[in-house]
Design goal:
31% of the residues lie in helices and 24% in strands. With 417 residues, it is α/β, with parallel strands linked by helices. It has two domains: 241 residues, TIM Barrel (Alpha-Beta Barrel), CATH 3.20.20.10; 118 residues, Lyase, Ornithine Decarboxylase, Chain A, domain 1 (Beta Barrel), CATH 2.40.37.10. Helix 2 packs across helix 9, helix 6 packs parallel to helix 7 and helix 8 packs parallel to helix 9. The longest helix is centred in the middle third of the chain and has 19 residues. 39% of the residues are buried. The chain binds pyridoxal-5'-phosphate. Pyridoxal-5'-phosphate binds next to helix 10. Belongs to the Orn/Lys/Arg decarboxylase class-II family. LysA subfamily. It catalyses: meso-2,6-diaminopimelate + H(+) = L-lysine + CO2.
C-alpha cells in the first residue's frame, strides 16, 4: 500500500487504526498452496485467533481455506462467516469436556490434546471421530542441533504416552481420524521440522483409520530487516516427498493439513498511530503516540519488534527516537531506533500488524479499541467501527443508590433519601 493511501485512511477513519491489505493475504495463501502442490490433498486451516474479524474470515473462506479454532466462540464466528462445520477444526487446550461436546454437536472436527478428556469423550461418544494432538518433544537447539526438549510444554499428548493413548482407543472403541502437532515455535530449521514430522509418521502407523495428518503451524515471517523467514518452498518440496512416501506405506491417500495464522495475515496488517508529543530528555528523544499496549501488546508481552516508519515524512533526515504509548505504565514500542524526523501530528506506521495485534487489544485505561479497515481492490472498507463510550459501560450494572457520594450536593443527598 502507498503511504498516501494509508494517510488518507487515517484522515478518513481517525487514528489509531488497523489496516489490512487483502492482496497480501491472498498472495500468502497462494504461496503456501503452491509450495505444497506436490501433495494430492492439501488443507490449510487458517488459525482464527491471529485475526478474527468476520470480513477476514469470509476472505479466507472464499480462498478455500478451512478454519482452526481454539474456543467455542471462534467456532461460532467461523459458522457466522459461512464456513461449513466440516471445514472447521476445534483445537483447544485445557477446555472443559462440555465445551468440546458443544463443538462436536455443531458438527466441527475435534482435536483432543490430553488423555483425561480423550477417555471421557471416547467413553461418551465413541461414534464421533477425533483427532489427537501429539507432542513430539522436538525443538531446535541454540546452534540449531536437534534436541529433545519441550518436555514441560502443556500442549499435546506426549509421544511417550502413546501406549496409554492406544489403550484408551481400544477400550472405548473410538475412531481416531487425524493426528496433529503444533509446537508453537517458529520453523527456522527445516531439518528439525522434518525430524518432528518423522516422529508423527511413526506415531500415525498406530492408527488404522486416519484421514489426515495436521502439522500445525510455525511459519516464521520477517518482522524486521535481516530476519530469517521460513523457506516454505523448500519445506513444501521436502515435506511433500516425505508425506507421499508415508501415504504409500500407509496404503491410503491422506490429507496433509496446516494451520497457519501469522504467515497468512501478519505482513498484510499495518497499524497507524499519530504522534501526540515529541519530548526531549537528557538522553533520549521520545515520541508519544495516541495508542499503547491496550492496542498492540506484542512488543511488551514478548519482546516482538515491529518496524515503525514515519509515513508523514518518509524523506526526512533519520534521527534516533524511542516510541512510547500513552498508557500510564511503561509501554515502549521501540527504543532508540532510527526513524525519519518526527514532528507532532505525524502518522507512524507499524508493520506486521495483522497477526495477534487487534485480537489481543483491550480497554485498559478505559480507551476505545480502534477501528479496522480492509484495503481491497484499491478501496478502503471499514470492517469494524471504533468503540464508543457506550461500549465501555455496556455490560456494567448500575448499582443505583447503593452508595451515596460524599461529594454530592445536599440537594442530591436529599433526593436519595
Ligand atoms: C496459534 C495456533 C496456530 C497458529 O500459529 P501461527 O504461528 O500464527 O501460524 C496454529 N495452530 C494452533 C493449534 C494454534 O494454537
Amino acid at each position: 500500500m502507498r503511504n498516501a493511501d494509508l494517510i488518507q485512511i487515517a484522515n478518513t477513519f481517525g487514528d489509531p487504526v488497523y489496516v489490512y491489505d487483502s492482496e497480501k493475504i491472498i498472495s500468502q495463501f497462494h504461496r503456501l498452496t503452491n509450495a505444497f502442490s506436490g501433495v494430492r490433498k492439501l488443507q490449510l486451516n487458517y488459525a482464527a485467533k491471529a485475526l478474527s474479524n468476520i470480513a477476514i474470515l469470509k476472505l479466507m473462506n472464499s480462498l478455500g481455506s478451512g478454519l482452526d479454532t481454539v474456543s467455542i466462540q471462534e467456532v461460532q464466528l467461523g459458522l457466522l462467516a459461512g464456513f461449513s462445520p466440516e471445514s472447521i477444526i476445534f483445537t483447544p487446550n485445557g477446555v472443559s469436556l462440555e465445551e468440546i461436546e458443544e463443538a462436536a454437536q455443531l458438527g466441527v472436527r475435534i482435536n483432543i490434546d490430553n488423555l483425561s478428556i480423550l477417555e471421557q469423550f471416547g467413553t461418551k461418544h465413541p461414534d464421533i471421530p477425533v483427532c489427537v494432538r501429539i507432542n513430539p518433544h522436538v525443538m531446535a537447539g541454540g546452534n540449531s542441533k536437534i534436541s529433545v526438549g519441550h518436555i514441560d510444554s502443556k500442549f499435546g499428548i506426549s509421544i511417550h504416552q502413546i501406549p496409554h493413548l492406544l489403550r484408551i482407543v481400544e477400550l472405548t472403541k473410538m475412531n481416531v481420524n487425524g493426528i496433529h502437532m503444533h509446537t508453537g515455535s517458529d520453523i527456522l530449521d527445516i531439518d528439525v521440522f522434518l525430524y518432528a514430522s518423522e516422529i508423527l509418521f511413526e506415531t500415525a502407523q498406530n492408527f488404522k483409520d486416519l484421514d489426515f495428518i495436521d502439522f500445525g503451524s510455525g511459519f516464521k515471517v520477517p518482522y524486521k530487516e535481516g530476519d530469517i523467514e521460513t523457506n516454505v518452498e523448500e519445506l513444501g518440496k521436502k515435506l511433500s516427498d516425505h508425506f507421499n512416501a508415508f501415504c504409500e506405506t500407509y496404503g491410503k491417500e491422506l490429507t496433509l493439513a496446516f494451520e497457519p495464522g501469522k504467515f497468512l495475515v501478519s505482513e498484510a496488517g499495518q497499524f497507524l498511530a499519530r504522534v501526540n508529543v515529541v519530548k526531549q530528555t537528557t538522553s533520549t528523544v521520545f515520541a508519544s503516540i495516541d495508542t499503547g499496549f491496550n492496542h498492540l501488546i506484542r512488543p511488551m508481552l514478548y519482546g516482538a519488534t515491529h518496524q515503525i516508519n514515519n509515513i508523514s515524512n518518509p524523506e526526512g533526515r533519520e534521527r534516533y527516537y524511542s516510541i512510547v504509548g500513552y498508557i500510564c505504565e511503561t509501554d515502549t514500542f521501540a527504543s532508540n531506533k532510527r526513524i525519519n524526523e518526527i514532528s507532532e501530528g505525524d502518522i507512524l506506521c507499524f508493520n506486521n500488524a495483522g497477526a495477534y495485534c487487534f485480537t489481543m487489544a483491550s480497554n485498559y485505561n478505559s480507551r476505545f479499541r480502534p477501528p479496522e479497515v480492509l484495503w481491497h481492490e484499491g478501496k478502503a472498507i471499514l470492517i469494524r467501527e471504533r468503540e464508543t463510550f457506550d461500549d465501555l459501560i455496556k455490560h456494567q450494572v448500575d448499582v443505583k443508590d447503593l452508595f451515596v457520594s460524599k461529594t454530592a450536593s445536599k440537594k442530591e443527598k436529599a433526593a436519595v433519601k
